[in-house]
Structure formats: structure tokens, C-alpha cells
Specification:
The chain is mainly α. It has three domains: 104 residues, no CATH class; 41 residues, no CATH class; 114 residues, no CATH class. The protein contains 18 helices and three strands. Strands 1-2-3 form a three-stranded parallel β-sheet. It is elongated, with a radius of gyration of 36 Å.
Amino acid sequence: MFGIPLEKAYAKALFCIKTVTEAMERLMFEKFIEDEEVDVTNPVILLNLVQECNHENLDHALQDPSTVTILEKYEAFQDKVRNGYLGKTATFWLSVIDQARLNFMLQYAVKTNNLGLFHLCNANMADLFFAFDGPNYTRYLVWFDLFLTNIEQSHPGAKVLQYREQSDLAFMLLVKSQFLEEPVDLDELMTYSLTPVPHSLGTPDGFLNKTNKATILHFLTDDYDGDTLYPSGRCLYIQDGNALFHSLTQLPPTFGEICLQMLDQMVAKKDFIFSTDSYHENSIKSQERIRRGSSPKYIVDGPATRKPAEFKLFLSNDANKVQLCRLLLRVWGSSVAASRLEKCDRGILVVEGKA
């Protein structure tokens, strides 16, 4: 029973407390029948309600005067038990039943979209959380009660239902909403956008749509003739600069030496184009990098700046890679790199879209 206010094993605690509550309720009702004069003049109505519990049978039972009289007597008997009529133990267990009823009503309010009952349950639960040493929850519930009380004044006319798609769960909720006391108006619902972004641009949870590049590889290879002979003489080597950044091993201690190490690998190709990525804010690729996460920004002040211990982590930040590309252009254009560039016939460096 302590699992609910202490937020431990909520589902299991709720299942157990349902069983305990029913057992205690049966004992109390038996005591009520023993101590009070109970006259059931129309047992058929109660029997129908027990055999098939639905709104129709419940309405018939509540319209029967004898049934209403029994319920009023039972409520009065419970008040006597709360005041100590059957001793402290009975008073304690009745308080457990009352708090269980409050939890069950809150669940019912959420499932049936009953805002009035939801408001009432939240207001009454403040005492429960305060009793179980939850003052912060109590303060919030008091504020929330005040917010719901004044919602018509603070948000006049704000009754627009917002719907956001989330896989199959949203569809299930939409179907269930048609069985509520106040079902969602589908005609009204369909006048609003059902997803944060169109399906052609993003997923229902707001992420960009991506196409696996491996699935379109066959378009490049379908017309390929394996017997075609390519010239083995003079060729132009095109290097993906960012791919080379991630494949570097045995790195020297400074960024300047790292740039020269990459240059030594490229001049051996004789004719090469070394091209790096461009980084545009709010681009599709930029949003994808944001989704993956990034590392802190590292200040690369010059060739003598020492590399960080985790170089691959350094490369997960766009600003860091921009600094490295610019330093690469600076180092390869310096006099230190001139003697190395003499070993190749032609070398082209492309940084930020400019050669």
C-alpha cells in the first residue's frame, strides 16, 4: 500500500490495493447489515445490477427509493466508522478504502476525459501526499487545483483539442475516444493538422525522414559493365576529407602536425582533390548532426595547438571540424608544406565549397 505514494511498483501496488479494498468493503458492509435495519423491497433491481453492471441497470437502481435509502444509510454508517464507532483499526482501514477510491476515481477521470472529476481528485489528493512526506507534491497540487478552478477565466474559450500522431498508439486512442461520454468530433478533428510535419518531410515524432543510401546503390550498378577497362595510367584521386579525419591513426600531438600528416598521405597520389564538407546552419544535414549529439567546442588557435585526448569526440562538433578545415587550408598553404607539395603534380584543396 505504501507503493503508491512512494512511487514504487505502482502497478503492482494498485492491483493489490484493489483486492484489499474489496475485502475490507465486504467486511464493512456485512457489519452494516448486522447493525442497521436494511429493508430491500425490490431485490430484482439489485440482482440485475450485480449480474450485469452497466449504465442502464445502475440508473434503474438509483431510481428505486428503497435502494437510495440503503445507500444513504450506508454512507451514514461509514461516517460513524470514521468517527470511531468500530474502534481505531476500523477507522484506519476505512481511510485506506477512501484513498483507494480516490485513486480509482482519478484513473476513471483520465480514461473517460472527465475534467471535473479529474479536478476534484487532484484537489483531494494533496492531503494524502502531505501525510506521506511529500510536501513538494502537495504544494504543486494546491497550485494545480487553483489553476483548474480559474481556467475559464485564465483561458477563456480554450477548448480546442490538439492531436499529435504517435505510431499506432494515437490511432488506438482515437478509436477509444469515440466511446467516451463526450466523444471527439471527427469532423472537427480533421480540420487540424494531425502531425507536427508532413509525412514526406518527417516522422510523426518530429524527426527528419531519411533514406538509407544502401537501398539506392543498385541504381548506380545496374548499368555497370564489369568488363570495362579503366585507364591505369594518369588518374585523378578524389578524397573525402571528413572520412579521412575519422580514419586517422597514430596522431601526432599538435593540429599542425596532423595537417601535415594528411598532406603526406595525399601527395603520394600525385594528382588529387581533397574536399571537405560544408556546414550550413538549419540545413537537413545540420539537423541530423544535432540529432546525433555533439561534443563541446574546442578552440583551435593555430598549428601549435595540442590535440584533445579524444580526437573522434572532437570531430563530433561541427564548429570543431570547421576550425580544422580552415587550419588545414592555412597549413597546406604555408612554406612548411611547400616542399611536400613539390612531390605531387597537382593538388586541389576544397574547403567550405571553395577550391
